[in-house]
Amino acid sequence: MDSPKNRLFDYVLYLLLFFGITYILFLNPSKSGHLLTSQTSQCSPSKTYKMATYRDELEEALSASSTENKTLIISIVNKAYVEGDKPMLDLFLDGFWLGEDTKSLINHLLIVAMDQTSYERCKFLRLRCYKLETDGVDYVSEKLYMSDDFIKMMWRRTLFLRDVLKHGYNFIFTDTDVLWLRNPFHHLSLNQSMDLQISTDKFNGNQWSKANPINTGFYMINSNNKTISLFDSWYAKKGNSTGLKEQDVLLRLMHQGLFRKLGLKVRFLDTVYFSGFCQDSRDVRAVTTVHANCCRSISAKLADLTAVIHDWKRYRGSSDNQTLTFRWSNHTACGHSWRH
């Protein structure tokens, strides 16, 4: 049997032990924190992961540029379009400045840059800009019409625009060599049932006729399952369309019945409003855009688009009587561009 002295000793020992543990856990938080940290580090994996929100830079650029109904304007540039005494991008922006009811549209314009130089120029101009990853392919220099590099660049453009549709955004795509002299939304259907409205090189008089020669340098498209399927089918032809630009492939698909198969509602735009060098607008009082199509080089486009700017200024400063006799300047530089 234990003596009273032994029991007293055991009691004091337990009491000291109790107070010691209490002090470590509750009265000295720095040490207790160290103990808990040590325990956790022993039980957790050797590699830790931080929770992070996925950041979609394209979505951010599209959202910042679009209207409330997720519609925006997209143009694509490279270094060749931003350098020189009067670069193509600057001339393109002049159209918005000089046009009728076009200045505010800049707020919904997204410039897609295919290289660092054009991206930096875009940022310098305080535009909405997106840098397109090109997987190491050189899209910096001028790509002459129908050259191999030109065709590659057009397919890369198609792939990017498909991604935009898949993000759920409607857009007007415009080449940078298209001058916006009036707000095109006044002559485009905003009905969501209209899947695609596309410009033509020469309008045949029927806005529903698939005999119109399409031009992919200017079009408006709504994002839906049908238009995404169109771009899927279109881009899928890239590998077996040697020597054809993406516009030729789309034209072939249309003639093969793809538009009808997908149930697409497509409108072909009248050159009275959406004109180009292939077919001038007959009415300067109605013309909305002027595209430097049927032209081979950037220098020729710049020369003849500059003449269009001068024609536009002349029209804006003329009387009604002079308007009746208005004529566009000849597209001389573009005509000569095919000889080289």
Automatic annotation (TrEMBL):
The alphabetical list of record keywords is: Membrane, Transmembrane, Transmembrane helix
Transmembrane domains' residue ranges: 12-29
Q: Name one Pfam family in it.
A: Nucleotid_trans
* UniProt-listed InterPro entries: At1g28695/At4g15970-like (IPR044821), Nucl-diP-sugar_transferase (IPR005069)
Q: Which domain of life is it from?
A: Eukaryota
- Tell me the ranges covered by the Nucleotide-diphospho-sugar transferase domain, including all copies: 105-305
**PANTHER family registered for this protein in UniProt:** EXPRESSED PROTEIN-RELATED, NUCLEOTIDE-DIPHOSPHO-SUGAR TRANSFERASE DOMAIN-CONTAINING PROTEIN
Query: What protein am I looking at?
Result: Nucleotide-diphospho-sugar transferase domain-containing protein
* Protein species of origin: Fraxinus pennsylvanica
